[in-house]
């Protein structure tokens, strides 16, 4: 009887670990898709705007609508378009994605930590600790490696191995990684905003592959 019980417990643990791995992988794939998604949306909007301009000038042709409808789901070829990757619309879009997710995550975390009571945190340092520990682990399956502050409203979060960009390589790594760093900055701003703080957040990818987030509370 005890052997059967032990076997059942082991099988349950294995199943739980397997389900967790699947969930983590799915989340990571979804986060990685944010970059190409933003590029495809921006590309489509630009084509639509260009097509509308030509039609209004009477210089459009039958192929314009086909180009607008050609969305290329799942493709990442647009990463090669340097002007599109550096388009400010992409940066703002990914920042907004992160901002909304950050607001929701901190609300849920505080709700769970306070036994179902939703409250706001008043201490900025406590919020930074939650970002570094809990928020980062929920999104990237790891904690921030280092948290620094001058105790005058400036904080630096250091991620030595950003999960979404640590596997990138090649000459375009710095340019493409900026898309995902905008998302991370948005998450931080969303958490702070939900806690009634506003801040300027900048991310800097260092030569050793670490990412330094500088947060200046306004």
From TrEMBL:
Example GO BP: endoplasmic reticulum to Golgi vesicle-mediated transport
Source organism per UniProt: Pachysolen tannophilus NRRL Y-2460
Protein family membership: Belongs to the TRAPP small subunits family. BET3 subfamily.
Matching InterPro entries: NO_sig/Golgi_transp_ligand-bd, TRAPP_component, TRAPPC6/Trs33
Pfam family, one: TRAPP
GO (cellular component) term, any one: TRAPPI protein complex
This protein's name: Trafficking protein particle complex subunit 6B
